[in-house]
Structures are given as C-alpha cells and as structure tokens.
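Deviations from the work plan: none for this task. Representative record:
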Amino acid sequence: MNRGHGYIGPARVLSVLFVALIFALSVVDRSDAQSRAGVLILDQGGPGLIAYAEIATYLRSVLNAETDRPVDVYSESLDLSRFDGSAYRKAQEDFLRSKYADTKIDVIVALGIRALDYAISYREHYSVSVPIVFAVVPKEALGSRKLPSNVTGQTLDVTLANAVVVARSVVSNLKVIALVGDPLSRQTFRFHFLQEIDAIRSRVEVMDFTGLAMGEVKRRVSNLPADACVVYTAINVDGEGRTFLPRDALEEVVNAANRPVVTDIESHLTRGAIGGFVVLTSVVGRHVGHLTSRILNGESADAIAVADAGATKPVFNWRELRRWDVDESRLPEGSEIRFRQLPIWKQYPYRVAGIVIAVLVQAALIVGLVFEERRRRRAETENQILLAEVLHLNRFATAGELTASIAHEVRQPLAAIVASGSAGLTWLQGKTPNIEEVRLALTDIVASSHRANDVIQAMLTMFRKQKGPHAKVNLNIVLDQVLVLCSQKLQATSISLRKQLLAYPDPIVLGNSVQLQQLFLNLVMNAIEAMNHADVARVLSVRTGFIDNDFFVEIRDSGSGIPMSLQTDDIFKPFVTSKEGGVGLGLAICKSIVETHRGRITARKDAVSGMVFLVTIPRATQT
Amino acid sequence: MGQALLFCYALQAVWLNGSRKRGFRSSPMQSHTLKAVEPKPQKIAVIDDDAAVRKATHRLLRSLGYAAETFERAEDFLASENVENTSCVISDIRMPGMDGLALQSCLRKAGVRLPVIFVTAFPDEGVRRSALAAGAFGFLNKPFLPESLIDCIQRALRA
C-alpha cells in the first residue's frame, strides 16, 4: 500500500535502530579490543637459554613503562637450533595458531634470525598482518636481503674479528685461535663467521674444533701451545649427537682447556670464560622494548629504520684475568671488568680495620710492656743504689746528731784515765808508795780505755760501708753498741733505760751488722724524740727474746705515740712523718733493712702510752 | 725540776737552822758574810753521773790528801746531811735531773756560799759564761789537767 511521501513506517524505524545498535556495539567492541595489547615473543632457542629470558624481562619492563595501555606478553621458545625439518615446523605452526587463535596479538617480537624467518613465513601462511620486531640478529646475518613490509628491528655487532681482538689482548703474541662450537654453518647466530675465516686465517692460525665430539674437544684444548687462545661460540649438539646447554658445554671446555676461553655471550662470563665482546641482554631488551612500544603506541613499523642496538661491549671476568695474569692495560678501550674481587680490606673495611687496630694495639702494648719491663728493671737497680746511698746518708745524718754525744762519751773515760793516772803518780811519789792504790788506779785506767775504745768502735762500725755477704751478728752486741752511742742523749733527756737482753741462746742472726746498728739506732732515736715532750715518766725499754724460730727485739717508749690520723702501717711508708721538719725516711729505712734480713717489723700503740716497735729476724741456721 | 726547787727551799731551812746553831745571824733571802767559828771543814763534794769519772776524781782528791764524797745526782747531794760540812763542790754540767747550773743557782738562792767548780765534757761558750758570771770558781773541760783542778780547789778553799 502506498502511504504518503513523508511518512516513515515503523519497520523502517526499527531497522534503522537495529543498524545503529549494531554499529554502536561494534564500536564498543572495537574500543574493548583496543584497551589491552598483546605481544608474542618468539625466540629461536630452547628453554633454558638465559639470554632470551633476560631480554624478555627487560622488554617487559620497558613496555610497562612506555605504553599507555596494559600489555600482555607471551613467550614461545621455538628450539630451532636443535629441532628442524618441515614436519616439525608444520606442527609448531599449527600449535601456535591454535594456541593463540583467540588471543589478540598486536606485535610479534622475533629473537634471532631463524625466529624472524619463522615469523615472516607464519604471517604469510596465515595471512596475518601483525608488525614484526626482530632482535638478536647479527648485521651480517641479515645481509642485504630485503625485508618484507611491516617489519623492523635491531641488529647486533657479533664478529669473529671481535673475538680475535680480545684474544690478542689476553694472550700476548697470539699465533693460534682454537675455534670451538657447533659447525658454523649450523649456527644461526654466527654463520657469518664463515665469511670472516679467510681474512682471519691471514693473520693467525685457526684450529677448527667445531663439530667435534665433546671428549675430543676437551682433549684438543688441553694441549694448546702457549700462544693460543680458545674462541668458544656455542655447542648445542656435539659431534656425537649429545645435547648441551651451551653454557654447560662452555664450562666443560674451560675446565679442560690450558688456555683462556673467549666468548660473546654475557652469561658465559660466570662459567669460566675470560671475556670478550659480549651481547648485553639489558641493552638488547630495552632497545627492542622501545621499538615495540612505539609500534603499540601507533607508529608504523615501516617508518622505523633498522639500526644497530649498540649492545655489544667488551666485558671481562676479573678472576680469569688474574688466573691468566693478563695486564688490564692491554684490554680494549671501554672494557668493563666484572667480579673484581675486592681485597679483604675493601670487602669488609670495618672488620679488617678493627682487626688491624686490635693487632696494632696489641703490638704497641707488647712493645710498651717490654720497654716498661726494661724501665722497671733499671728503676729497681737505681732504687737499690739509691737505697744504699740513703742508708749511708742516714747513718751520717744520725752520726752528725750524735757527734756531740760521741765526743762526750769518749771524753768521760779520758777524764777518768787522767785523774786516775795522776792519782797513781802522786801515790808513787810519797815516802812509802801506796802500791795497792796504784794498782787499783791502773786497773781503772785499763777499764776506761776499753770503754773509750768501745765508743769509737761503735762509731766506726756506723761509718763503715759494708757490702759484704751476710755474716753472723749478735743482736745483743748491736743493741749495746747503739745504747752506748745514745747513752749521753738518754741521760740528757732524763730517760731511764730498761734493758732486758736474752741471755740464752745468744740472738745470732745472719745479717749486716752496720745495717742492724742503723736499724736499732733509728728506732731508739725515734723513741727518745717521742718522749721529748712527755709528761709521764720517760722510760725506754729494750728487750731481746726468742719466739718460734725468730729472735725479736722490742723497743718500747712512753712518749706521745703517733698522731690519730696515721695508721700504724702508714708510718713505715716513705716521707711519712709527724716530726716538724722531719724527712720521714727513718722508719722506711728501718723497714727496708728488716726486709733485707728477711724479718718483720711492726708497730703498735701501747695500752697506756707510747709505742712498741717489734722487730723479728729469723735465727741464723747452723752452717 | 720541781723537786729541785723543793730541795732549794728545804736546804734554805736546814742551812738557816745550821747557821743559827753556829751562831750566824742571818735573814732569809739574803747572802751575808760568814764569820767562821770553827775551822772550815775540807770536805769536797764530787757530783757526776758517770761512775768512772766519780771514782777517778775521788781517787785523785784522796791522793792529794783531801777528804771527798761522791754523789751521782745533784739532788742526792742537796738532800744529804753533809751539805754544811762541805767546803767545795766539783760538779758536772749535764746530768739527768738537776743539772750543774741549776745546782749553782739553787745554792745561791738558798744563800749558801759554797764554791762550785764545774768539770764538763760538753764545752759550751754560753754555759761557760753564765756559770762564771754566777760565781763559779772554775769551768774545766774534760779530760782536765789535774793541776788546773787543784789550783781551782785551792782558790776555792781559801775563799
């Protein structure tokens, strides 16, 4: 039926709406598809090759940073080094196609020339128009062939000439190269080395160990001359058909070789290779990552020129350099040396510093102690000399005090001698000489003479410098001498003397009579001075006796004792004195003398007043 | 020393007593001339703390015909009954207890006109001067020349 011209019927509206809806949906659909990107990495190696994995990692990190949408990255190892043949390839292709049928792939990244060829033919087979980015392809491998459209990538500079340069720097006067690896024609990464061999051969001898069984390789590399160097490429399958991971094969070769081994793979540096112009996976990975993200961000692959990645760099292993004693200045300019073992003091600076300091401190202490010991010995000797001097001076000082006393003591007997002598002469002059009186007078003269001599003897003993060995000394005799020397002083100061000397046995000790005289003299003089200002009766008591195996001498005074501030031990210390103007050495000297005689000296305060000094000296053993 | 002073005063009392017996007129604390009633006794007192010196001096005096008596300490002499009978004293200077100079001044204070001769082993110029100024009849150093001692004694006994 015909309606008017302007009339739009419901069926029409619906169909328009339907079309619009489809359109809208497809638009929506497209934007959904555009929100995530997919990248498929195809590498030609088998699983386990570190290099490709590292490259993939760097690639991923760059993609995450540089694209404006999230990227899903897929990885496939084609294992084309070990497996080939059309059947394998077909199966491989089918596998990939079904695997990724429903997956959106925006870029294919092909690592290696074989992978690149594979990717190109896959694209043709399945009429897929996905941009391809290639990497890990030597410039020479690409050659001059024309790449299809929508393909871009990066090349590497990997040459046998590079390896020879390195070999020259690690082996002085290099004459021979031993080439190890799979047959070059089969090496997709290095088959262009074949073209270089002739040029190389003009400069060095090339021993071709490629394609040999591992055992044979090892035998050959263990017998190399001194001017040879091993250039390792890659062994995936050896002459016997045994399969290897190239790095494991390298390690076997290194262990067998008697010369350094040059490599071009970065991960081989940790397996014993000395170094070489290696491919840095980080550089490769980042560079291909940049290329991929540019394409994902909208750039056309055709617009990006193929360029060298600049990923080859001379890198060396420090340990191997040291092993082969290589002079680092011979290495190519810009060489990087890895695994440099810091000397201990750089690895653990603080610990080493600590140990060194400890050792130095100990050494210093030891040296110091040795010097101390010497000084001590010298000081001891000096001390002994000084002590002898002091003892001597002490004697003189005391003698000086006692000079008047001594003079007095000598004059008394002299006066008696003169008087008695004169009396005797008078008696003899008489008409009848009184012989009896004369005899008495002469007897007294003799006695007085002896007495005078005793005093002089005591004085002489004091001045005699005795250094001889110890002799037997009777303490009673020494004390008597001392008391004679002090007798005048005792009388002048009204001190009454109580003497109680041991009668039996005689107190004989081994010692030095001069020193013992000095000892008792000091003690008696001290006692006399202590009683100088005493209010109570002045009594000096001197006693000798016998206790255990020792003889003792006790000197007791009734003086003022020692000040409260001093302990009875303190008074024996040098330069301790309670006397005004006193030096304080008297008792210290006493102690020193007593100790020389292997005895002991003690002081205590008497219950009533004054001090009691007790000197014990071991008895002389009968010899 | 306190003992010595006591002796001095006791001596004074005794001497005054003795002097009254002898008919001396005396007043305390004053020296005065003596009029001898009986011949002067010739007893010489020897005071010295050293026994040998005492003995030898006694011997010497005896050999010369003098009567002598010895004392160890000045106090012993002053306490003895023979003080009045003594006509001369020979004494040491340095003695325990009362020394020679103290004895001399004690005798003087008591008004006892007793000549004192000092014999000492300790020659000291200051002591010598004080002793002579106080009226000592001699100051001899030990060992003394017997002639010097005799000379002093004779002068002392004449006085």
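DSSP finds 17 helices and 20 strands in chain A.
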